[in-house]
Amino acid sequence: xxxxxxxxxxxxxxxVAGSVxxxxxxxxxxxxxxxxxGGLQLAAGRGFREPYxxxxxxxxxxxPHPSHxxxxxxxxxxxxxxxxxxxxxxxxxxxxGFLAVAALLPPLTAALAWSFASRxxxxxxxxxxxxxxxxxxxxxxxxxxxxxxxxxxxxxxLLVGRPVTVGRAVGxxxxxxxxxxxxxxxxxxxLLALLAVLFCMPRPPSSARLLSLWAVLGVLAGYLxxxxxxxxxNLAVFGxxxxxxGTKMLWLTSYxxxxxxxxxxxxxxxxxxxxxxxxxxxxxxxxxxNLATAFGVQGEAFLSPLVLLAGWRLRGERRVQLAGLAxxxxxxxxxxxxxxxxxxxxxxxxxxxxxxxxxxxxxLGLESFLEWGRRRRGWDSRAGAVFRPALAVVAALLTAVxxxxxxxxxxxESQAWGRDYVAYSQCAQALxxxxxxxxxxxxxxxxxxxxxxxxxxxIAVPDGGPETALLAAERYGxxxxxxxxxxxxxxxxxxxRLDEQPPGLIYxxxxxxxxxxxxxPAWPGQP
Length: 527
Fold this sequence. Notes:
Elements (H helix, E strand, L loop, with lengths): L2 H19 L8 H14 L5 E2 L1 E2 L11 E2 L7 H10 L7 H4 L1 H22 L2 H12 L14 H15 L5 H17 L5 H13 L7 H31 L29 H6 L2 H23 L5 H10 L4 H20 L1 H12 L4 H22 L5 H27 L10 H15 L7 E4 L2 H8 L3 E3 L5 H11 L1 E6 L9 H4 L8 E7 L2 E6 L8
Parallel strand pairs: 2-5, 4-5, 4-6
Antiparallel strand pairs: 1-3, 6-8, 7-8
Helix pairs in contact: 1-5, 1-6, 2-3, 2-19, 5-6, 5-7, 5-16, 6-16, 6-17, 7-8, 8-9, 8-10, 9-10, 9-14, 12-14, 12-15, 13-16, 14-15, 16-17, 18-19
């Protein structure tokens, strides 16, 4: 592969991702809203502080609150780097770094495929699979960790393919640190980096033992170079190197408990009391969901058999073994340890690190299939000339269908992506007409999204009934409540349907399916 072909792949990746980005007027969902809002806070010089609460897991004292107590900060840092460029901070400028990452993924995948097979046609095909990245494409141009995880994962396996040196060990540690700084499950990659330098990377036998020691120290040094400052920040703010928001996720008995208020009800004892049947049932459900994600989303269904064929063909290759181990570890963590978060998107997010490997292996799997056809069916060399372009065409068509449905909203009258921002803007205007003033807090399903649309501080609708909502409003000074169709907790469904009118809440009206309420200032305890 020449540098010109790598450049063409990068331009293709940028063109495709940029074309999707042009139709994404806002982040689009909670995670991306959070990272973008955090980036704007940093770019404005407000530091790691946030005027919104999307969960209560760390028992926040009030607003503003120390940021990134649950999600890690790298995506916000990258958004801040773009937003801090000369000129006004805009959604476009905040995405510049993410678009650059999207452009790097196709040539990186091609380089990884070349390292496996040393064939230009297979490397080019792998790069095209990364250009037309299926279910992942709508998420590459926005403020989330998908592209970052793919970039770091691809670089990780490129390094693992080289002979071990102290410098490369430090590089693996840096990548593991960046992956942890991007996502909490990135800590797994520190273990994988240590396994790589000890067992996977070639080394001269005469100095293997001493080199292994220095390599381990290099991995740890690289990791701490990235994560050390963040550990220091957490120690200063939370009194522990890891922020407290994620630890209670171990003991959830339902997904909606993420929004429990107060969160002290989420305990190991309560988890045990839920019973073995519920605990095992949740993990079996998560396993089924995650395996379906692996086959249908990460493997895009038609690539999964090819990846498995290539994995079997290269089963003696240490990098392939390490990739398989990484996938199993990720599946285990997102199934057995965090079943609710894993099945609801965590495995989809975390598995992005291995996508460059799967795209690099798929063309090799196609070659195995073609070899079978030549042996058993008498195919000639023309079969490859048909199947290789067909694989890229199928990837492009599937990607187009996915983007059309997710971004444009197939079968709907208005564009799907950005609809939440428009709805929140309309809700904010209706609340202003009802008396909402700047600085007043609103309780809503997506607090960072509402903050971006309105400028008002916001807190999450807690899991529970009206009494729980009133308690949270009292503690954090919320004056208004927005209940949306599809996101209201079970305990507030009668309120959303207007089947009941509990004291302390005043119904204001409806905006695009969202019901608006005011917390009665005359009710005891309300601000």
